[in-house]
Amino acid sequence: MMAQYLELKAQYENALLFYRMGDFYEMFFDDAKAAAEALDIALTKRGKHNGEDIAMCGVPVHSAEGYLLTLIRKGFRVAVCEQMENPAEAKKRGYKAIVKRDVVRLVTPGTLTEESLLEARRHNYLAAFAEIRGEAALAWVDISTGALHVMQTSPVRLGPELARLMPSELILSESKFEDYAELETEFGLSLTPLAPASFDSTSAESKIKSLFKVGSLDAFGSFNRPEIAALGAIIDYLEITQKGKLPLLRPPVRESVGGTVQIDAATRRNLEITHSLSGGRDGTLISAIDRTLTAGGGRLLARRLASPSTDLKTIQMRQDAVEFLVENSALAENLSEALRRTPDLDRALSRLGLERGGPRDIAAIRNGLTQAETIKDTFPEGLPELLASAAKDLSGYDELVDLLDQALVADPPLLARDGGFIAPGFDEELDEARKLRDEGRSVIASLQAKYAELADISSLKIKHNNVLGYFIETTATHSEKMLAAPLSETFIHRQTTANQVRFTTVELSEMETKILNAGGRALEIEKRLYSTLTEAVLNHAAEINLAGNALAEFDLASAFADLAKGENWCKPNVDNSRTFDIIGGRHPVVEQSLRKQGDTPFVANDCQLSDGSDGADIWLLTGPNMAGKSTFLRQNALIALLAQAGSFVPAKSAHIGIVSQIFSRVGASDDLARGRSTFMVEMVETAAILNQADDRALVILDEIGRGTATYDGLSIAWATLEHLHDANKCRALFATHYHEMTALADKLGGVENATVTVKEWEGDVIFLHEVKKGAADRSYGVQVAKLAGLPDAVVNRARVVLDALEKGEREGGKQKALIDDLPLFSATPPPQPAPAQDSIVEEALSEIIPDELTPREALQVLYDLKEKARTS
Question: What stretches pass through the bilayer (predicted)?
Answer without folding.
Answer: none
